[in-house]
Sequence to fold (261 residues):
Amino acid sequence: MKWIIRMALAGVGLLAWMFRSAHTEKKRVAAVHLSGDAQFPPFKLLFISDVHRRKLRHKMFSDQVDLVVIGGDFVEHGVPEQRILENLKVLSGLAPVYYVFGNNDREIGEGRLRKLLEEQGVTILDDESVELFGNPKLKLTGIDYFAFRENSIEEAFRTVDKHDSVIFISHTPFVFKHVKQHYPASLLMAGHTHGGQIRLGRFGIFERGSLDVSEGVTELVSNGFGTTTLPLRLGAKAEFHILEIYPSPAVRDLAQSSSIG
Fold:
């Protein structure tokens, strides 16, 4: 009988820990150097994805940033409109906000969500690229969730030059390989996988979130901020990201040489 009670208590304790892990978050900070020819002063970017049902609060975000990027699944079915508005106000109070659709966002109605985003001044990237800070060589490129549109990536890169410095956003990381093979992208960011959300050691439905650099290209896959189906996490802590963005060292050195000359 005692072992049954102990097992029950251990189970309750584990659930409490998983619930806590799903409702506390880690701020991940990293420096990223963009390839490409763009010259620009360093800036800070906040990336957050998969908020789902969670409530954002001002005290969660203390860094001064220059732009905010939402990597999809900001909402899902059943999220109250007032919470959506309050969450948007928290982020739009930090810096200009850019957004791409995820696979759950349309569950509240695409037209309704677009209206809420636009009312808060959020820029929706519908398979397109925009210049950042008025710099024609510095691009933010985003695609709609790939299941809903054809030729998303081709359309998104239509105005991008091969020498541009490009930050690419997709809700899903499963397009990264294709993008790297065919288009210029310096930094690729996505969420969607929740890092597996509930992991048993090394094992999970998806890989844990990570930031990897290879051959001058940085890939960020986030564990995400919220949860779906169950408000529980194990081994894949909720997170958001503060990225300090710098130009290519080669471009920086050339600019310094030119200024000295």
In short: The longest helix spans residues 2-22. The chain has a mean pLDDT of 89. The first strand starts at residue 25 and ends at 33.
